[in-house]
Amino acid sequence: MEVVRITPRGYCHGVVEAIRIAKRVGAERSTQEPVTMLGYLVHNEHVTRELQEAGVELVEESDRMKGLDQVREGTVIFTAHGISPAVVEAARTRGLNVVDATCSDVTRTHDLVRRLVDDGFHVVYIGKRGHPEPAGVLGISPEHTTLIESIEEADRLQLDGKAKLAVTCQTTLSVWDTNAIIERLVHRFPHIEVHNEICLATQERQEAAVLAADHVDCVVVVGSRRSSNSLRLAQVVQEKAHKPAHLVDNATELDPAWFAGMNRIGVTAGASTPTHITREVIAAIEAISA
Ligand code: SF4
């Protein structure tokens, strides 16, 4: 059995930078002053553990404003997914030292939405409810943004057809699903301004996985179930390449039965998956085939 290493895979620039910032702040903390990440800095358990070992505490509450109530003092780190301006303001008002690890690609979407709203647009935002990235973007101007998740919701949207409309999206969605939703919106509202904000790292990993899937029997995606881009990698392999895809957090989750009768296994990894975890998974698959 041959393991095909799909490239690009694993860490993106936003994750590398967020981890660098959090580790630096953790290392610089004074003993009295805690350093707390408000939610998972990036959606990966291994990274979270590593940061906790480096002295960064975790508030697990998914509602950032509620989570902030648990941060009494010291430094609060906002995660790579971005943060609502109201939470930033509340943290400053409470006298916390604020460190922002938002990915520059997410910041670009925030800037875009701010500009569109200033220019009088109503913004349709395609994203996943409950994920921190949409919560941060919608917090910019809740009354001028509407979150939708699907084509069905695009069909049900009640918007003033004469108003200035724009559509944008979460950075880590499926390229194909998002294009289909955008197409439906353009069909319903031909004048809608389109700003597809799926980040390059997400696009490249999905396109490489779908392309490689044509030449393998199945694909293993290394990543956390919390990680939107890891989940989407498995999804696009199944839906676009029609090949089995298995999402595993680490090598212990591999099931040898998945590979029975197979010759070539593709391996990719979400943008928040540490390289050494992917390497262990590859070694474990090779050991199964030996
Ligand atoms: S997946 Fe994209 S948006 Fe998310 S941290 Fe990486 S580069 Fe930034």
What are the key terms here?
Cobalt-precorrin-4 Transmethylase, domain 1, alpha/beta, about 290 residues, about 20% strand, 3 domains, 4-stranded parallel β-sheet, 11 helices, binds iron/sulfur cluster, Rossmann fold
Notes on the protein architecture:
The protein has 290 residues and is an alpha/beta fold. It folds into three domains: 2-11 and 200-289, Cobalt-precorrin-4 Transmethylase, domain 1 (3-Layer(aba) Sandwich), CATH 3.40.1010.20; 13-103, Rossmann fold, CATH 3.40.50.11270; 105-194, 3-Layer(aba) Sandwich (Cobalt-precorrin-4 Transmethylase, domain 1). 42% of the residues lie in helices and 18% in strands. The chain contains eleven helices and twelve strands. The strands form three sheets. Strands 1-12-10-11 form a four-stranded parallel sheet, with helices on both faces. A four-stranded parallel sheet has the order 3-2-4-5. The longest helix has 16 residues, at 13-28. The model has no long low-confidence stretch (mean pLDDT 96). The chain binds iron/sulfur cluster.
Task: List the ligand species.
Answer: iron/sulfur cluster
Query: Percent of residues in helical segments?
Result: 40-55%
What is the number of independent domains?
A: 3
CATH superfamily of the largest domain: 4-hydroxy-3-methylbut-2-enyl diphosphate reductase, catalytic domain
Highest CATH level, the class of the largest domain: Alpha Beta
Q: Which structural category fits the helices and strands?
A: alpha/beta
> What does the overall shape look like?
flat
What's the CATH architecture of the largest domain?
A: 3-Layer(aba) Sandwich
CATH topology type of the largest domain: Cobalt-precorrin-4 Transmethylase, domain 1
- Give the overall average pLDDT: 96
Number of strands: 12
Beta content comes to 15-25%
Straight-line N-to-C gap: 8 Å
Q: Poorly predicted ranges (pLDDT <50, ≥5 residues)?
A: none
What is the CA-based Rg, rounded?
A: 20 Å
Largest sheet: 4 strands, parallel
**Series of secondary-structure elements, N-terminal to C-terminal:** EHEHEHEHEHEHEHEHEHEHEEH
Q: Which strand order do you get reading across the main beta sheet?
A: 1-12-10-11
Q: Helix count? A: 11
